[in-house]
Specification:
The complex is a heterodimer of chains A (149) and B (212).
Chain A (H helix, E strand, L loop, with lengths): L1 H25 L3 H8 L4 H55 L11 H5 L4 H10 L5 H17 L1
Chain B lengths: L18 H4 L3 H10 L3 H20 L5 H17 L1 H7 L4 H22 L10 H12 L7 H15 L4 H12 L4 H8 L3 H22 L1
The chains are: A mainly alpha (149), B mainly alpha (212).
Chain lengths: 149, 212
């Protein structure tokens, strides 16, 4: 029992040592690091990338500002909708009671500029449309007048 | 934390910024870059710390493009976060940029892990034989060939670990950071770092056991 445990501990220590050696071996890459650091246009490329990122952030900022404006306008629009609904409801309530409109309350007709369609129909009905016979008669009369001259 | 800012060859590569910025401390440069939008101040910061950031990236990535990607990502994040550095009144810009670089490496490791094409390749018989021989010797060989085999093998084995485990093992065994420094870098408590380190080592042992 003790012997097995000791053997396992030794094996673990060996693996640990090998593991450390491999990690160090993997991290040995100074030549490439030096090549990258000495790259002549590294800073130029970095500046270009920073410029791209700045442009991207500016675009995102514009959208955020726009969304902020829309978000702030929501309560105002809700208030307007509520006000319109109250007006509409009040006018309906007044009409249903058969009472005339009080001077301070606007009707929905006044708000929406909706005229009574029935009146317009009456107006159209009173107008006499020209028939084909009327048109023909007018033309014949004109011809006769010209002939008589 | 290791703060190896590179001031040695600030004049040799690319056009050097104004002499006035070269004499300023990192904190003063950050202040000028963040509040006044001084481009030369930021360029000077980049010039001083690019080697350190490249070195951190090279601990995790083999290809040059990946290393450059991490370098650019780190400095870009630093550029936009300069006011945060000023507000926090941190003493060391080197520590701060190193922390950003480690986080950028961690993000890149996670991205790689998600990509199916970056899955770790199988190990060859020679590699397994080499691994078995190494367990009997005192350490990795010193010759170039052995180093190359060790590097390829290590890449394949470490690719099987989670990004957190890999980050932690590199910080501990390669960078030699203390538990407190690792906690500060990752915003972890000290006990969490210890637990995660223990788990990371156990994960690596399990990966090795599979091939031995």
């Amino acid at each position: 029992m003790y012997g097995k445990r000791k053997k396992d501990a030794v094996a673990d220590a060996e693996l640990e040592r090998l593991g450390r050696a491999l990690v160090r071996a993997s991290a040995t890459n100074e030549a490439e690091a030096e090549a990258v650091a000495s790259s002549p246009f590294l800073y130029t490329r970095l500046r270009a990338r920073i410029g791209e990122e700045q442009a991207r952030r500016a675009g995102a900022e514009t959208w955020r500002t726009l969304l902020g404006v829309v978000w702030r306008s929501v309560p105002a629009m809700a208030l307007v909708a509520l006000f319109a609904f109250i007006l509409f409801w009040t006018s309906n309530f007044s009409s249903a009671g058969g009472a005339t409109l009080s001077p301070g309350v606007l009707s929905d007709e006044a708000l929406m500029d909706a005229r009574d369609a029935g009146i317009e129909n009456v107006v159209f009905a009173e107008r006499r449309a020209l028939s084909s016979d009327d048109v023909l008669a007018t033309l014949i009369q004109q011809d006769e007048r010209e002939v008589s001259r | 934390m290791d703060e190896r800012a590179d001031n040695s060859d600030t004049i040799t590569l690319e056009s050097s910024p104004a002499n006035s910025t070269a004499e300023l401390s990192d904190v003063e440069l950050v202040s000028r870059a963040a509040t006044g939008g001084d481009e030369t101040a930021f360029e000077e910061l980049f010039r001083r710390h690019r080697r350190r950031v490249s070195l951190i990236a090279s601990r995790f990535f083999r290809q040059r493009e990946q290393i450059e990607e991490v370098v650019q990502e780190s400095f870009m994040k630093a550029y936009f976060a300069l006011p945060d550095f000023t507000n926090q009144q941190e003493n060391s810009f080197a520590s701060w940029i190193a922390r950003i670089a480690f986080n950028a490496c961690y993000d890149e490791l996670r991205r790689m892990k998600r990509r199916p094409e970056s899955a770790s390749g199988d190990m060859s018989e020679e590699e397994v034989a080499w691994l078995k021989s190494q367990i009997r010797t005192t350490g990795a060989g010193d010759d170039v060939e052995a180093a190359a085999i060790a590097r390829d093998l290590a890449d394949k084995l470490l690719a099987r670990l989670s990004p957190e485990d890999r980050l932690l093992l590199v910080m501990l065994d390669v960078e030699g950071l203390s538990v407190a420094e690792i906690g500060e870098t990752n915003n972890w408590s000290i006990s969490k770092v210890k637990v995660r380190a223990h788990r990371a080592r156990a994960s690596l042992r399990r990966v090795l056991e599979r091939f031995l």
